[in-house]
Amino acid sequence: MVSRAEREKKMILEKQVQLQKEEDQNWLELHAKLEKLEMLEKECLKLTANQRIAEDKIKHLEEKLCEEEHQRELIQDKTAQENLPKRAKSKKPFVKGAK
After folding, report:
1. Which of 2, 16, 22, 86 reaches 20 to 30 Å from 97, CA-CA?
2. Quick one: pLDDT at residue 56?
3. pLDDT, tens digit, for every residue of 60-87?
């Protein structure tokens, strides 16, 4: 009887040790996953900030391009208006039969 009780006690202690090891392992895995999650969250915030900066730069460049295109059109219109009177003055009227 005593040996049976001792065996059961030994088995219970071994089971407790095994459960404690599993709990410790689970805790280590959980801790590692939490650290990885924290790292990924920081990386996500960093990427989001970089994306916002890039989008702002793109918007600024698009606005600048639009303004430059507008200025180019104004210059072309002004040049066309300045050249119009010069062409009209330089052209000789066509006279039929004149040599």
Report:
1. 86
2. 99
3. 999 999 999 999 999 999 999 988 866 5
Region of 97 (left: φ > 0; alpha: ψ -120 to 50; beta: rest) is left
Q: For the chain, percent helix, then strand, then coil, each to nearest 5?
A: 90, 0, 10
Query: So what's the pLDDT on residue 84?
Result: 80
Residue type present at position 92: K
Which residue reads 């970089």 in tokens?
50
Domain edges within the chain? 48-76
Which amino acid would we find at residue 14? E
pTM metric for this prediction: 0.57
Q: Which two tokens stand for residue 18?
A: 């095994």
